[in-house]
């Protein structure tokens, strides 16, 4: 196993037995370790830089409390700044709009979009007691539509009947009408993905967004794809506009750096974490927990 950042900082700073203020050279030495640990955790370089700059400003000259060692003091500053960067509080999905509330799910193919759509539908049904309708707008991949229908059946969530030959905007319109007629509270629209961000994908998603005016546009991104996920998030934010992020495959990402980069790159909150393939493997995003994981 890697030596954790907490261990490393403790190691560097334990020789400073003197209590008092953190000196510039102590802090600089510690920042080199923080930088290395964040890069190893797959945090984007520009994020690492602005993060360590902020910590440095707060740490140099900071008075070390009597009850802690300089190492513990610095770890606390790093921890606090991590939470600030990740977003200080957990953000739930916002359903505060007239029904039916549309939620648009966007992202690349294979990011876990369809799985996350079903997970969210299940959560809104079970925990929030909402009546949820799911619809797949993936007109290029009939298998994706089928997959959503199967997930709907398995989890007891209604899905919009598949009609072949319709375009995504038409399907989205039909879903909203069906939701109004059927008294649904929430409509989850699972858009098509591509293997890379391209203009056709963005134009399609933008058209659907215009049609349904969704209350939430959730970008689904795979934590294991690191910097690619960050670039994808930035592209969707710029071209379509998102309201939040669902970070998937967090179960395989022991380092937790993607969350930090995503938040920094888009300014948008991470709302949920996908933690496995099963329909209930979805967690609320908890900044303190992710900060704890990055620190080790
Ligand atoms: P889509 O193409 O974006 O709709 O991706 P899918 O929802 O079909 O997911 C692709 C694969 O990733 C499937 O095998 C899912 O079971 C798996 N998957 C989705 N989310 C997670 C997650 O949070 N953790 C793990 N381990 N697997 C996931």
TrEMBL record:
GO biological process: SRP-dependent cotranslational protein targeting to membrane
Membrane association type: Peripheral membrane protein
Binding positions (GTP): 107-114, 190-194, 248-251
EC number, UniProt record: 3.6.5.4
UniProt GO cellular component terms: plasma membrane; signal recognition particle
Keywords associated with the record: Cytoplasm, GTP-binding, Hydrolase, Nucleotide-binding, Ribonucleoprotein, RNA-binding, Signal recognition particle
Record field: catalytic activity: GTP + H2O = GDP + phosphate + H(+)
Subcellular location as annotated: Cell inner membrane; Cytoplasm
An MF annotation (GO) of this entry: GTP binding
Oligomeric and partner information: Part of the signal recognition particle protein translocation system, which is composed of SRP and FtsY. SRP is a ribonucleoprotein composed of Ffh and a 4.5S RNA molecule.
Protein name from the UniProt record: Signal recognition particle protein
UniProt source species: Blastochloris viridis
